[in-house]
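Researcher: I'd like a candidate sequence for this fold, 266 residues long. If you have to choose between options at a position, lean toward the conservative one.
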Protein backbone atom coordinates (compact mmCIF):
# COMPACT_ATOMS: atom_id res chain seq x y z
CA UNK A 1 0.00 0.00 0.00
CA UNK A 2 2.77 2.42 0.94
CA UNK A 3 4.65 1.74 -2.31
CA UNK A 4 1.54 2.37 -4.40
CA UNK A 5 0.70 5.59 -2.53
CA UNK A 6 4.26 6.83 -2.95
CA UNK A 7 4.15 6.04 -6.68
CA UNK A 8 0.83 7.89 -7.02
CA UNK A 9 2.43 10.90 -5.36
CA UNK A 10 5.49 10.82 -7.63
CA UNK A 11 3.23 10.36 -10.65
CA UNK A 12 1.11 13.33 -9.54
CA UNK A 13 4.24 15.48 -9.36
CA UNK A 14 5.44 14.29 -12.77
CA UNK A 15 2.06 15.02 -14.36
CA UNK A 16 1.92 18.42 -12.68
CA UNK A 17 5.34 19.27 -14.10
CA UNK A 18 4.30 18.22 -17.60
CA UNK A 19 1.10 20.27 -17.59
CA UNK A 20 2.59 23.36 -15.93
CA UNK A 21 5.74 23.51 -18.06
CA UNK A 22 3.89 22.96 -21.34
CA UNK A 23 1.33 25.63 -20.42
CA UNK A 24 4.14 28.05 -19.52
CA UNK A 25 6.11 27.13 -22.68
CA UNK A 26 9.15 26.07 -20.65
CA UNK A 27 11.64 23.26 -21.55
CA UNK A 28 10.59 19.76 -20.50
CA UNK A 29 11.45 16.22 -21.62
CA UNK A 30 9.87 12.91 -20.67
CA UNK A 31 11.33 9.40 -20.68
CA UNK A 32 9.17 6.30 -20.58
CA UNK A 33 10.62 3.94 -17.98
CA UNK A 34 8.10 1.14 -18.39
CA UNK A 35 5.01 -0.27 -16.71
CA UNK A 36 4.59 0.21 -12.98
CA UNK A 37 2.93 -2.74 -11.20
CA UNK A 38 0.10 -1.59 -8.91
CA UNK A 39 -1.16 -5.06 -7.96
CA UNK A 40 -0.77 -8.73 -8.90
CA UNK A 41 -3.77 -11.07 -9.15
CA UNK A 42 -3.84 -14.22 -7.03
CA UNK A 43 -4.57 -16.05 -10.31
CA UNK A 44 -1.47 -14.70 -12.04
CA UNK A 45 1.33 -17.14 -12.89
CA UNK A 46 3.69 -14.27 -11.96
CA UNK A 47 2.36 -13.81 -8.40
CA UNK A 48 5.58 -15.20 -6.87
CA UNK A 49 8.00 -13.44 -9.23
CA UNK A 50 6.50 -10.00 -9.96
CA UNK A 51 5.81 -7.67 -7.01
CA UNK A 52 3.94 -4.42 -6.45
CA UNK A 53 6.39 -1.60 -7.13
CA UNK A 54 8.24 -3.39 -9.94
CA UNK A 55 8.60 -1.64 -13.29
CA UNK A 56 8.20 -3.94 -16.30
CA UNK A 57 10.57 -2.82 -19.04
CA UNK A 58 9.98 -5.48 -21.72
CA UNK A 59 7.94 -8.55 -22.58
CA UNK A 60 9.40 -11.27 -24.81
CA UNK A 61 12.21 -8.82 -25.52
CA UNK A 62 9.84 -6.13 -26.84
CA UNK A 63 10.06 -2.63 -25.36
CA UNK A 64 7.03 -0.34 -25.54
CA UNK A 65 6.40 3.38 -25.19
CA UNK A 66 3.16 3.06 -23.22
CA UNK A 67 1.09 0.53 -21.28
CA UNK A 68 -1.55 0.33 -24.04
CA UNK A 69 0.99 -1.28 -26.38
CA UNK A 70 1.89 -3.79 -23.69
CA UNK A 71 -1.79 -4.66 -23.20
CA UNK A 72 -2.39 -5.06 -26.95
CA UNK A 73 0.64 -7.34 -27.34
CA UNK A 74 -0.86 -9.79 -24.85
CA UNK A 75 -4.57 -9.30 -25.56
CA UNK A 76 -5.13 -11.88 -28.31
CA UNK A 77 -2.75 -14.54 -27.06
CA UNK A 78 -4.21 -17.91 -26.11
CA UNK A 79 -4.57 -18.78 -22.45
CA UNK A 80 -1.42 -20.58 -21.28
CA UNK A 81 0.99 -18.92 -23.71
CA UNK A 82 4.45 -18.67 -22.14
CA UNK A 83 5.87 -15.14 -21.97
CA UNK A 84 9.05 -13.66 -20.50
CA UNK A 85 8.98 -10.39 -18.58
CA UNK A 86 11.96 -8.10 -17.89
CA UNK A 87 11.59 -5.83 -14.88
CA UNK A 88 13.47 -3.61 -12.44
CA UNK A 89 13.07 -3.71 -8.66
CA UNK A 90 14.83 -1.25 -6.37
CA UNK A 91 17.21 -0.39 -9.20
CA UNK A 92 18.11 -4.03 -9.97
CA UNK A 93 17.15 -5.88 -13.15
CA UNK A 94 15.24 -9.17 -13.11
CA UNK A 95 13.46 -11.56 -15.45
CA UNK A 96 10.49 -13.89 -14.96
CA UNK A 97 8.66 -16.41 -17.16
CA UNK A 98 5.05 -17.51 -16.84
CA UNK A 99 1.82 -18.25 -18.69
CA UNK A 100 -0.89 -15.86 -19.84
CA UNK A 101 -4.37 -16.05 -18.30
CA UNK A 102 -7.79 -14.91 -19.47
CA UNK A 103 -8.75 -11.63 -17.77
CA UNK A 104 -12.27 -11.52 -16.32
CA UNK A 105 -14.54 -8.64 -17.33
CA UNK A 106 -12.55 -7.65 -20.43
CA UNK A 107 -15.06 -8.45 -23.16
CA UNK A 108 -15.50 -5.45 -25.49
CA UNK A 109 -16.33 -4.80 -29.13
CA UNK A 110 -12.59 -4.94 -29.86
CA UNK A 111 -12.12 -8.11 -27.79
CA UNK A 112 -15.42 -10.07 -27.97
CA UNK A 113 -13.81 -13.08 -26.25
CA UNK A 114 -12.05 -11.00 -23.62
CA UNK A 115 -8.36 -10.20 -23.32
CA UNK A 116 -5.43 -12.31 -22.21
CA UNK A 117 -2.79 -10.88 -19.91
CA UNK A 118 -0.44 -11.74 -17.08
CA UNK A 119 -2.79 -10.69 -14.26
CA UNK A 120 -1.42 -7.35 -13.11
CA UNK A 121 -2.92 -3.90 -12.63
CA UNK A 122 -0.56 -1.43 -14.24
CA UNK A 123 0.12 2.20 -15.10
CA UNK A 124 2.83 4.11 -16.96
CA UNK A 125 6.08 5.00 -15.19
CA UNK A 126 7.43 8.21 -16.71
CA UNK A 127 10.51 10.24 -15.73
CA UNK A 128 10.37 14.01 -16.27
CA UNK A 129 13.30 16.41 -16.72
CA UNK A 130 12.67 20.16 -16.56
CA UNK A 131 14.53 23.46 -16.84
CA UNK A 132 14.47 24.88 -14.20
CA UNK A 133 14.42 21.82 -11.96
CA UNK A 134 11.37 21.33 -9.76
CA UNK A 135 11.51 20.25 -6.12
CA UNK A 136 8.25 19.30 -4.37
CA UNK A 137 8.14 18.73 -0.63
CA UNK A 138 5.03 16.60 -0.10
CA UNK A 139 5.93 15.63 3.46
CA UNK A 140 4.50 12.27 4.54
CA UNK A 141 1.49 12.52 2.23
CA UNK A 142 0.89 9.86 -0.42
CA UNK A 143 -1.63 9.43 -3.21
CA UNK A 144 -2.50 11.40 -6.34
CA UNK A 145 -5.00 13.98 -5.08
CA UNK A 146 -2.50 16.85 -4.77
CA UNK A 147 -1.86 16.88 -8.52
CA UNK A 148 -4.02 19.89 -9.33
CA UNK A 149 -2.55 22.09 -6.60
CA UNK A 150 1.02 21.06 -7.49
CA UNK A 151 0.30 22.13 -11.07
CA UNK A 152 -1.05 25.53 -10.02
CA UNK A 153 1.93 26.22 -7.76
CA UNK A 154 4.52 25.16 -10.35
CA UNK A 155 2.84 27.15 -13.12
CA UNK A 156 2.48 30.23 -10.91
CA UNK A 157 6.20 30.20 -10.06
CA UNK A 158 7.15 29.73 -13.72
CA UNK A 159 5.03 32.68 -14.82
CA UNK A 160 5.89 35.15 -12.07
CA UNK A 161 3.50 34.51 -9.15
CA UNK A 162 0.63 36.42 -10.81
CA UNK A 163 -2.34 34.11 -10.22
CA UNK A 164 -3.22 34.46 -6.54
CA UNK A 165 -3.84 38.24 -6.55
CA UNK A 166 -4.00 38.21 -2.76
CA UNK A 167 -6.40 35.28 -2.59
CA UNK A 168 -5.86 32.31 -0.26
CA UNK A 169 -6.45 29.40 -2.66
CA UNK A 170 -7.10 25.74 -1.85
CA UNK A 171 -8.30 22.80 -3.89
CA UNK A 172 -7.94 19.15 -4.70
CA UNK A 173 -7.99 16.76 -7.64
CA UNK A 174 -5.76 14.45 -9.62
CA UNK A 175 -3.95 15.80 -12.69
CA UNK A 176 -3.50 13.77 -15.86
CA UNK A 177 -0.54 14.44 -18.14
CA UNK A 178 -2.92 15.97 -20.69
CA UNK A 179 -4.38 18.47 -18.23
CA UNK A 180 -7.60 16.85 -17.01
CA UNK A 181 -8.66 17.05 -13.36
CA UNK A 182 -9.90 13.84 -11.73
CA UNK A 183 -12.04 13.13 -8.68
CA UNK A 184 -10.66 12.16 -5.26
CA UNK A 185 -11.94 11.03 -1.84
CA UNK A 186 -12.81 12.94 1.32
CA UNK A 187 -13.51 16.28 -0.32
CA UNK A 188 -15.89 17.38 2.45
CA UNK A 189 -13.01 17.08 4.97
CA UNK A 190 -10.80 19.10 2.64
CA UNK A 191 -13.40 21.87 2.56
CA UNK A 192 -13.16 22.08 6.36
CA UNK A 193 -9.35 22.17 6.16
CA UNK A 194 -9.52 24.96 3.57
CA UNK A 195 -11.82 26.94 5.84
CA UNK A 196 -9.43 26.47 8.77
CA UNK A 197 -6.57 27.70 6.56
CA UNK A 198 -8.50 30.88 5.73
CA UNK A 199 -9.03 30.09 2.06
CA UNK A 200 -11.52 32.09 -0.01
CA UNK A 201 -11.32 29.92 -3.16
CA UNK A 202 -11.53 26.12 -3.43
CA UNK A 203 -11.12 24.22 -6.71
CA UNK A 204 -13.16 21.01 -6.94
CA UNK A 205 -13.11 18.38 -9.72
CA UNK A 206 -16.29 18.48 -11.79
CA UNK A 207 -17.94 15.59 -13.61
CA UNK A 208 -21.44 15.60 -15.01
CA UNK A 209 -23.65 13.51 -12.70
CA UNK A 210 -25.56 10.45 -13.82
CA UNK A 211 -27.65 7.89 -11.94
CA UNK A 212 -25.01 5.22 -12.49
CA UNK A 213 -22.18 7.46 -11.30
CA UNK A 214 -23.99 8.69 -8.18
CA UNK A 215 -24.61 5.10 -7.07
CA UNK A 216 -20.89 4.78 -6.36
CA UNK A 217 -19.99 8.34 -5.35
CA UNK A 218 -19.23 9.34 -1.75
CA UNK A 219 -22.58 10.29 -0.11
CA UNK A 220 -24.04 9.75 -3.62
CA UNK A 221 -22.75 13.15 -4.73
CA UNK A 222 -20.02 14.07 -7.18
CA UNK A 223 -16.91 15.78 -5.77
CA UNK A 224 -18.19 19.19 -6.79
CA UNK A 225 -21.70 18.63 -5.41
CA UNK A 226 -20.36 17.41 -2.05
CA UNK A 227 -17.81 20.22 -1.80
CA UNK A 228 -20.39 22.88 -2.72
CA UNK A 229 -22.97 21.56 -0.24
CA UNK A 230 -20.42 21.24 2.57
CA UNK A 231 -19.18 24.79 2.01
CA UNK A 232 -22.73 26.14 1.90
CA UNK A 233 -23.39 24.65 5.34
CA UNK A 234 -20.06 25.05 7.12
CA UNK A 235 -17.93 27.52 5.13
CA UNK A 236 -20.24 30.04 3.42
CA UNK A 237 -17.39 32.48 2.68
CA UNK A 238 -15.51 29.83 0.68
CA UNK A 239 -16.17 29.90 -3.08
CA UNK A 240 -16.21 26.37 -4.52
CA UNK A 241 -15.11 26.52 -8.16
CA UNK A 242 -15.81 23.52 -10.45
CA UNK A 243 -13.00 22.58 -12.85
CA UNK A 244 -12.54 19.87 -15.46
CA UNK A 245 -9.15 20.94 -16.82
CA UNK A 246 -6.12 22.98 -15.80
CA UNK A 247 -7.23 25.60 -18.35
CA UNK A 248 -10.46 26.02 -16.34
CA UNK A 249 -8.32 26.87 -13.30
CA UNK A 250 -6.23 29.44 -15.16
CA UNK A 251 -9.34 31.01 -16.73
CA UNK A 252 -10.94 31.42 -13.33
CA UNK A 253 -7.85 32.86 -11.64
CA UNK A 254 -7.36 35.34 -14.46
CA UNK A 255 -10.98 36.27 -15.25
CA UNK A 256 -13.14 34.63 -12.53
CA UNK A 257 -15.06 32.85 -15.27
CA UNK A 258 -16.73 29.65 -13.99
CA UNK A 259 -17.63 26.68 -16.20
CA UNK A 260 -21.27 25.64 -16.53
CA UNK A 261 -22.46 22.84 -14.27
CA UNK A 262 -25.62 20.86 -13.75
CA UNK A 263 -27.20 18.73 -11.03
CA UNK A 264 -29.54 17.22 -13.61
CA UNK A 265 -29.30 13.44 -13.54
CA UNK A 266 -30.21 11.19 -16.46
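Model: Candidate sequence:
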Amino acid sequence: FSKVQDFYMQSAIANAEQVAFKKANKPITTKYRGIYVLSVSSKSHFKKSIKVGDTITAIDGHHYENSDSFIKYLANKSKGTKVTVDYTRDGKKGQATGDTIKLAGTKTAEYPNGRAGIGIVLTDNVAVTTTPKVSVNAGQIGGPSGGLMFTIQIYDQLTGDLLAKGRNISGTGTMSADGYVGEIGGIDKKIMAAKAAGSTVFFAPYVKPSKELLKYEEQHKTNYMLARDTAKKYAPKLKVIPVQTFDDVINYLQTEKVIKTTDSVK
